[in-house]
């Protein structure tokens, strides 16, 4: 009875060896498959990292190019804007009338719709401020100073009937943010666009006085040109001259 059992064990041995060999081969294949997949995953991730670095570099270069292009366009536009509004930025001095001449008359519509006429200011000292404005509402630093000075003037004098202030904006743009300028600098006096009728007639009328961007023309109570300030002027300098004219 023992021999048959031993015989069966001996007969089963090759099957076990085959099974073990089979299992070992399968494990080898599984191991190789895992290694291959891991290698493929590594290569794929590496390719993605390289692509990501390339993608990051490209927008940076593109951004720099875009900023430079915008700068070139802006400079070109400002040059065109300056030429389009005539002498306010690049005055042509054909003649320079002496102070005391009668101030050229003009009318202006405020951005709120009210009318301003120089002829109606007779008996007052009138400050006429010329200001170029870009399409984005940009103004030069001189005008920022002049607006603050005129704010002080209006706070001190405009309450009565002795002094009038008007800012003549010169912009060829349909959207020039004049309302925003009025809000930012608390402009309480007349502010209107000389070019609202398609011509810069007020700027042209005063070009003989060599006005520039930011100029302030002071007109006495008899409608005569008293002073022309082409540079930044402070309230402490302007106020005594106004008092003399009053």
What does this entry look like structurally?
This protein has 246 residues and is α/β, with parallel strands linked by helices. It has two domains: 84 residues; 150 residues, Glutaredoxin (3-Layer(aba) Sandwich). Helices cover 50% and strands 14% of the residues. The chain is built from five helices and seven strands; from the N terminus they run αβββαβαβαββα. The strands form two sheets. Strands 5-4-3-6-7 form a five-stranded mixed β-sheet, with helices on one face. The radius of gyration is 41 Å and the shape is rod-shaped. The termini are far apart. The relative contact order is 0.14. About 8% of the residues have low confidence.
